[in-house]
Amino acid sequence: MENWRDGKQMTFWKRLSSRFLFLGKAMIPSPLLLTLLLLGIGITTLGAFWGWGWVCFSIYNGILFSLLIIDIYLVKQLPKLIATRQIDSLFEIAEDNTVRLIIRANAPLSTKMWVQDDYPHGFHTSERTFYQVWKNETSKVITYYVKPHRRGRHQFEKIHLRLQSQFRLLHIQQSFTQRMEVKVYPRLEAVRRVRKGFYRRQSLQDGRALYRSFGAGKEFSHIREYIPDDDPRQINWMATARRGKLVSNVYHPEAGQQVAILLDCGRLMGVHNEGRTQLDYALEAVLGYAAIALQRGEQVSFIAFSDQILRFVPLGKGIEHLNRIVEASFDLEPSYKETDYLQVWNLLQSMHRHRSLVTLFTDMGNITFAESLQNLMSYTKKKFAFLTVSMQNPRLIDQLKQPLVTEEDIYRKIAIEELQQERKRVLRYWSNQKVGTLDVMPDQLASAVIDTYLKIRSRVET
């Protein structure tokens, strides 16, 4: 019986509270109403001192209650509001990205409004609450900017509105569910520079050849009768013997060289530099590198791995293939495990032909100490052209520039200098083993690897 009564009371209060929601509008007292209530206490107290306490209480609160009832009635007459959100189709990490909130009323509205948007946790914005004044208007557009803190998939949630009532005694709160997923990509500045032809113009200014093949870059097409201007090395002596006259081989440029991009996503790639991981910088460079290779007509494959293969995009060509690589890689995160490099060797052998250019983006510590990486480098350089790309640590470089004040500073500098010398020794060793090495600051990585690629491709083997 008591449970039935409790349930009946809960239903009553639920129905009563729903009456004050007014079709999804929840009301809370405004600062003005709270101030007036406190003032009423003071007036009642003062009236009681003179023996007029009940009179002052009844008159003051009667007037205030009447105004509140009228204000509640006017709230019910407010136009119906709809809030929607528009976002950029592409968000980039550590960049300002545009968000638009569009609020519409089905009739002219005059009031004050505060707006908040539930953007993804961790995003940075210069303003959390937006103040708007409606003057007999039917729509408002609020534009603000968010700066994502990491790549991947993120969720926008509700849009919250708070309106001021006619007599300013109440605030009406209303929320609109506008759940939207946004993909945050790496910075694509390097890709945009490639698409705009920046590196092509730069190569022409430097006097480097463009669109030459790696190696001889020619495939056999057919034979024809020898003419005096032909290169003697192109004479086909077996066909000459059969035909009884000189004939030459005719070659055409090889239809698309092959580039393999390997991205290490192991533990050391999670080290942070200025708020971004090494993997963030490497991925930015990977996409710029893929863009320039595909622009030149190359066939490009992409493998991301740590202790296992994480993403694999087989060989392909053209801008659509670049989109496939972007979509496959934008949400990659560093693993907490050590990288196993030899697992990619079978993929490379089965997918790429001789003279393909294999480029590995990794941490310098792995090049120095990881035995499986050293084995991979030894195997790969025998069949492919191999380039390793790593990043220097800006904090270590800054430490070398600091003044020496204490003994600890001296020991720290000595340790850093020894580490830098070991780094140079390892890079020099692999360079002598016919392995290309690139080791630069993180913010220079994208442009440096593209420039190195163009230099490699500009060499023509005779």
TrEMBL record:
Superkingdom of this protein's organism: Bacteria
SUPFAM superfamilies attached to this UniProt entry: vWA-like
Residues covered by the DUF58 domain: 223-395
Segments traversing the membrane: 20-43, 49-75
Keyword check for Ribosomal protein: no
Keywords, in A-Z order: Membrane, Transmembrane, Transmembrane helix
PANTHER family: BLL2464 PROTEIN, SLR2013 PROTEIN
Protein name stated in the entry: DUF58 domain-containing protein
Lineage summary: Bacteria, Bacillati, Bacillota, Bacilli, Bacillales
